[in-house]
Structures are given as C-alpha cells and as structure tokens.
Amino acid sequence: MRSFPLSLLAAVTVLSSSCSKIEPDGAAEEAAAVDPRGTFDVDEETGETSARFKAEDGTVTAMRSGRTVPPDLPEGFTLYPHARAVNVTRVDQGERRSIIVDLRSDATPRQIADHYLAEAEAAGFIVEPRLRSDETEVLAGEDAEGLAFSLVAKREKGATQAQLSMGDTFR
After folding, report:
1. Mean pLDDT, residues 71-96
2. CA 46 – CA 27 distance, rounded (Å)
3. Which of 11, 105, 136, 170 is geometrically suited to a Cys-Cys bond with 83, CB 3.0 to 4.6 A?
C-alpha cells in the first residue's frame, strides 16, 4: 500500500472537491459534454502528483507534490545544510503561494529549529510560539504581510524528520 503525506491528501481534497468526474462506464457522449473545472494527474515514473482547479471567479489553484518538486523557498530561506527534501508540496493560487517541505537530517531538532528561527527573524517574522521537548521542536510565526511560517522537527529512529510550511494560501 502506498502512503501519502497528510499535506498532500489535504491539498488533493481541496482541489478535487469541485472537479468533474467521469464514471468508467459512462458513455462517450457524456464524456464529451463534461466541462471539467479541474484535473488530477500522477506521474507513473516519479510518483509526482499534480492538480489544477479553476474556480468560478477564474482563480486557478495549482498543486504539485512529490520528491522531484523543487523546494523553492521564499527569499531569505534555505534548506537546512545536509538535509534532504523527501517530499515537497507546492500550492499556487492566483498570486498567492504556499510550500510544504518534508526534510530528513542527521542534525538534532534543536539545530534545525535554530537555523529556521534565525532565517525567520532575519526576514522580519515574529516567531511565537517556540515549543521544545527532548525530541521535538515547534516554531510558528508570521510576517507583516501575512506570510505564515511553521516548523515541526522530531527525532525518530536516529534521524530528524521535519516539516517546514510557508505561505499565504493557508489563510
């Protein structure tokens, strides 16, 4: 069984809720008459998924998710050194954009959180709260323009798994 990140499932649910569906046993005439407002595709080779939805007001929402999607972070933010992006979900909605990057690293959750806290503060984010436990770090914040930022980093099985979320389509 193939598992999908929660972020991917949430994005797909939102995007596909208004997409037209053609039943496999539907007639060719019915298929030709359907005017779908959205699409959903899975690349068989890479596993990357993409979805696109056009709202009645003309706003287009597009989502790409997978290990081959580039982790294009906002200006001033970088991938943690020596971490690898294992999945990236990007959502563009008109002029708004959000990105969720799932990372793996040998670094501690605190090292990763310190890195992103420094970048967020340098970029003008107000970061509140910062929560710490022995194996987990959580950061959340927002800048003056409403760009949201969050990080959850947790140590499991000798590695740190982190999820960095940034964007303005979360509102």
Report:
1. 93
2. 32
3. 105
